Amino acid sequence: MTTPLIGLTREGLAAELTRIGLPAKTVKMRAGQLWNAAYTRGQTSLGETTTLAKDLRAQLDAHFTLARPEIVSEQRSGDGTRKWLLRFAPGIEVETVFIPEEDRGTLCISSQVGCTLTCRFCHTGTQKLVRNLTAHEIVAQVLIAKDALNEWPGAQRNSDNRLLTNIVLMGMGEPLYNFENVRDAVNIIADGEGLSVSKRRITLSTAGVVPMIARAGQEIGSMLAISLHAVSDDIRDVIVPLNKKYPIKELLAAVRAYPGLSNARRVTWEYVMLKGVNDSDADARALVRLIAGIPSKINLIPFNPWPGSPYECADWARIEAFGEIVNRAGYASPIRTPRGRDIMAACGQLKSESVKRRAAVR
User: Fold this and answer.
1) Structural domain span for residue 48
2) How far apart are CA 144 and CA 150, in angstroms?
3) Is 324 one of the catalytic residues?
4) pTM here?
């Protein structure tokens, strides 16, 4: 069985080359050549790596692979959003979404197959956790998107494609419950000699795994987003059950201590608008009080329904009134335009297609 080179850290790549017997004096150079092949040129086969001698390519090809995961399906929304269902192994499937905008292209990637958190408004939360994704499987999602968008050097890009500029770990799973793999993947994605996505353009979203937030700031260093969604423990306990373990007071303390937080590196508070649950003027004022003194912006997210969902989206006028209160307090509070709803690619709608199919035949 060949070992995937995608997702190995630089140190891990060098160790693998040493393991198969490459001379020690050549390991660093060869590792650099392979890194360039994988992340700068986007090569999918070691046979394409013509910077290496033919016999060396054959030796490497016997042990390693640059192959991509299987694309089970691709869907395109009427608004340009694209969603891929990727299969890494039997039963190991995740969804990845690309959202094109005028000034950016954002890729939403997954960190787990399923999720442990059971947030009541989230479709992914209805799928039990299968397992964590490896660093290989996380980084491969970015490569798949770059392949599809013709974003490698020398590719002929289509005029309707947008550049992939931003990465958000907001897909399936809780990233901080898969810390080491997420850390390694983000550091690979941000490496300046490869994919070179700035950590200021990579956002990690967590429901509030408090003990891991400081470590995320130290070892990952990406932008931080918090799935807050409520301003009181009694409501958040219901819609984000993790709150029972790490209540709002502890979460806020961890955010205030997040390394590097500043006006230039604000935390994003994600707040899904649920009709009659968390959308009152009083909730808006309480939110302003909660985050006082924290460099912040607030994403107001219209609830995206899914089959069997227990909530309704707040009325648009109510969302705008909520946002106006937050704006007057000095916080940017954009209302996130729902994208990809027609292909179940919007925020909170992702779920492995195989799970959907099994549920449909029960």
Assistant:
1) 3-65
2) 10
3) no
4) 0.90
Q: Is 78 exposed, middle or buried (0-12, 13-18, 19+ CB in 10 A)?
A: exposed
**Alpha-carbon gap, residue 249 to 233, rounded angstroms:** 9
Catalytic site includes residue 115: no
- Active site residue: 108, 115, 313, 347, which one? 347
Residue-wise pLDDT for 173-198, tens only, equals 999 999 999 999 999 999 999 999 99
The CATH number covering residue 43 comes to: 1.10.150.530
Say if residue 145 is in the same domain as residue 50.
no
**pLDDT at 183 (0 to 100):** 98
| Residue 341, pLDDT above cutoff 70 | no
290 and 347 share one domain: yes
N-to-C CA span, the chain: 36
Q: Which amino acid is at 335?
A: I
Cβ neighbours for 135, distance < 8 A, ≥ 6 positions apart: 7, 8, 9, 180, 181, 182, 184, 185, 188
Rounded Cα distance, 60 and 49, in Å = 10
- From the list 16, 95, 137, 151, the catalytic residue is 95
Q: How many domains does the chain have?
A: 2
